[in-house]
Amino acid sequence: DTEVTQTPKHLVMGMTNKKSLKCEQHMGHRAMYWYKQKAKKPPELMFVYSYEKLSINESVPSRFSPECPNSSLLNLHLHALQPEDSALYLCASSDSGRNQPQHFGDGTRLSIL
Amino acid sequence: EDQVTQSPEALRLQEGESSSLNCSYTVSGLRGLFWYRQDPGKGPEFLFTLYSAGEEKEKERLKATLTKKESFLHITAPKPEDSATYLCAVLITSGTYKYIFGTGTRLKVLA
Lengths: 113, 111
Fold this sequence. Notes:
The complex is a heterodimer. Chain A has strands at about 5, 10-15, 20-25, 30-35, 45-50, 55, 65-70, 75-80, 85-95, 105, 110. Chain A has no helices and 11 strands. Chain A is mostly beta strands. In chain A, the strands form 2 sheets. In chain A, strands 2, 4, 5, 6, 9, 10 and 11 form a 7-stranded mixed beta sheet that branches. Chain A has a 4-stranded antiparallel beta sheet with strand order 1-3-8-7, with no helix packed on it. By secondary structure, chain B is mainly beta. In chain B, the strands form 2 sheets. In chain B, strands 2, 4, 5, 9, 10 and 11 form a 6-stranded mixed beta sheet that branches. A 5-stranded antiparallel beta sheet of chain B has the order 1-3-8-7-6, with no helix packed on it.
């Protein structure tokens, strides 16, 4: 079982809906990440939080809004998404050292109708 | 431009047939190279970290090596359960820290 837990596992939403993805880790990691992965493609970095502060935003559209309420939780708020946003959304965490490996959750499979 | 390329894109092996996967990189400021395994419908699972040329790491049937331009993941006597997509990722510093994934190698091991 993965030590990074993501909920829900699957989500279907309309383009006008508002929903949130959640991620939780209890490994004491101080860096957390959101990735987007399309079928047969590698993960693409979206956001990085370091010590609960947003440190990297890879030019992600504003319809994706990240939030880090505390060191164990990471949310991704979704609003007015487009069909091309359908993908697997992965959360990861790592130790605070920059060259530490990332530990991934199993993702949320998102489908936009 | 920083690039990470994996080859082959897909590989089919018979059980017990050893082979190597390649991860080539053209980047500046390499801080580490990571190998992951990803099963369908799952997140990537961490395998190895390599930090400097000449470094090697081993785990069961897998061995990862690193040179100044590429990394190899050697699979010795693979079993069907080794079937997965293998991803490499590099951590670089170019003004800011950046994590770049390769395109992956889809491995199928036949019984």
